[in-house]
């Protein structure tokens, strides 16, 4: 009996996931195969950035050209799966029909919208509802914010319709093309490697450094000077105007006093590693105002593997762990995506005995970000992949249970205009 119900559950949920897989692959194909592209382009003609239709006629026609054919293909493939189930497991084949029933819901909704049935769009076209976004892009499911980016950020990314798994696997869950990305600690080893990788991904990069010389990176064996902005710890507010134009802020600066435990070392470690980073994060969050900001702006914070593992530098560990907890606390209410970079020992000026190369670490950071990893772990220590998720879950749960929603960020969310 247990085997029967396990098999039944597998066919039920598997057939639904299969339907979504067909849907996402159809969507991807519609962007690369001309016969489908001609139909799918109707969908991209429909909406303004506010997600209001250009006009009712185009809105209805787009469903006949795009949504109805898409759902019809889903139905054909789910019926084929049902036929396979009938042959392979005849006693439970009926449960495989749930994929087809699920698809019929999409087909019926698309026909209703195409026919102009009153209320059909409001009830069924959930990812295209106009109005202010209520949350940043979801991680595992497609919300309005996530899907908006497919229309108005990059049409060659964010393909998924309900679940984001296919985008994660394809590396299309985040597009860096055309994004303005500012990196602190840009004159350091990892900073320069990040600038190189981000630029190769199509981003427009800005180097933020405390030095007085322009940051130079190596591109194909040739030195390339990067747009460099100078800033100082304690004068973070001077970057306000710049942050208004930045899409992604990567907080990567830091200091390692190694074995020093003097009062000055304590002060410098916390001021640079913790509080300067926190002030920059808070300053950037104030620039998240419009729908586009909620959808496209992000913060990436290098909190380090020291959050959960010893770094053989007590003050580095203490200051980074404090920063990690502050990021965990504040991103509960953040109006945009906030990612953590949990990095193991890489060779740099701060750590000359690191075992990983900064170029490889930067490449992995960008790769995981494009798969929408919210906690980007790059390390040679397998324990970190176990310890950090457990620590982050428990600390985040503790903060949720014993703290209130931040009024400053809540008010910021509520004041956002509808337009993008």
Element-level helix/strand string: HHHHHHHEHEEEEHEHHEHEHEHH
The dominant shape is: globular
Low-confidence stretches: none
State the end-to-end distance: 54 Å
Which range does the strand content fall in? Answer: 5-15%
The percentage helix is: 40-55%
Q: In DSSP terms, counting alpha (H) and pi (I) runs of 4 or more, how many helices?
A: 15
- Report the CATH topology name of the largest domain: Rossmann fold
The CATH class of the largest domain: Alpha Beta
Query: Could you give a short account of the major beta sheet?
Result: 7 strands, parallel
Strand order of the largest sheet: 5-2-1-6-7-8-9
**Structural category:** alpha/beta
Instruction: State the CATH architecture of the largest domain.
Output: 3-Layer(aba) Sandwich
Count of separate structural domains: 2
Arithmetic mean pLDDT: 94
Radius of gyration: 24 Å
The count of strands amounts to 9
Which features does this protein show?
alpha/beta; 15 helices; two-stranded antiparallel ribbon; 2 domains; 10% strand; 420 residues; Rossmann fold; globular; transmembrane helix
Explain how this protein is built:
By secondary structure, the chain is an alpha/beta fold. It folds into two domains: 2-130, no CATH class; 180-414, NAD(P)-binding Rossmann-like Domain (Rossmann fold, 3-Layer(aba) Sandwich), CATH 3.40.50.720. It has helices at 2-30, 34-44, 56-88, 98-114, 120-124, 144-152, 165-170, 189-200, 240-244, 263-285, 291-296, 314-330, 358-370, 384-402, 407-414, and strands spanning 180-184, 204-209, 216-219, 222-225, 228-230, 248-251, 298-302, 337-343, 375-378. A seven-stranded parallel sheet has the order 5-2-1-6-7-8-9, sandwiched between helices. A two-stranded antiparallel sheet has the order 3-4. Helix 2 (34-44) crosses helix 3 and helix 3 packs antiparallel against helix 4 (98-114). It is globular and about 70 Å long.
């Amino acid at each position: 009996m247990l085997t029967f119900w396990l098999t039944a559950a597998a066919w039920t949920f598997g057939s639904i996931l299969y339907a979504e897989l067909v849907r996402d692959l159809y969507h991807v194909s519609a962007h690369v195969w001309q016969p489908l592209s001609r139909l799918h382009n109707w969908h991209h003609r429909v909406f303004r950035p506010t997600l209001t239709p250009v006009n009712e006629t185009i809105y209805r026609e787009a469903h006949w050209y795009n949504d109805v054919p898409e759902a019809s293909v889903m139905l054909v493939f789910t019926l084929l799966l049902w036929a396979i189930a009938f042959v392979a497991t005849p006693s439970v084949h009926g449960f495989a029909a749930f994929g087809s029933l699920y698809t019929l819901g999409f087909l019926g909704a698309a026909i209703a919208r195409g026919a102009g049935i009153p209320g059909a769009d409001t009830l069924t076209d959930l990812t295209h509802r106009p109005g202010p976004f209520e949350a940043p892009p979801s991680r595992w499911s497609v919300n309005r914010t996530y899907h908006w980016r497919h229309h108005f950020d990059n049409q060659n990314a964010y393909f998924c319709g309900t679940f984001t798994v296919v985008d994660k696997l394809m590396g299309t869950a985040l597009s860096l093309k055309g994004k303005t990305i500012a990196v602190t600690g840009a004159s350091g080893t990892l900073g320069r490697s990040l600038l190189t990788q981000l630029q190769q991904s199509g981003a427009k990069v800005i180097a933020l450094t405390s030095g007085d010389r322009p940051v130079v990176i190596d591109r194909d064996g040739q030195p390339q000077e990067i747009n460099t902005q100078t800033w100082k710890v304690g004068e973070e507010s001077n970057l306000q105007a710049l942050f208004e134009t930045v899409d992604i802020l990567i907080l990567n600066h830091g200091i390692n006093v190694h074995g020093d435990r003097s009062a000055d070392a304590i002060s410098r470690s916390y001021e640079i590693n913790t509080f300067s980073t926190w002030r920059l994060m808070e300053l950037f969050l104030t620039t998240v105002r419009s729908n586009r900001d909620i959808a496209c702006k992000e913060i990436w914070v290098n909190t380090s593997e020291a959050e959960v593992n010893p770094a053989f530098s007590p003050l580095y560990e203490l200051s980074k762990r404090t920063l990690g907890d502050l990021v965990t606390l504040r991103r509960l209410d953040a109006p945009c995506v906030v990612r953590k970079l949990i990095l193991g020992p890489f060779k740099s000026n701060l750590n000359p005995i690191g075992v990983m190369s900064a170029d490889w670490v930067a490449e992995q950071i960008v790769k995981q970000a494009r798969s929408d990893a919210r906690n980007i772990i790059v390390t040679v220590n397998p324990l970190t992949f176990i310890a950090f998720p457990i620590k982050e879950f428990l600390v985040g749960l503790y903060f949720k249970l014993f703290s209130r929603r931040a009024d400053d960020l809540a008010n910021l969310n509520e004041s956002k205009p509808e337009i993008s």
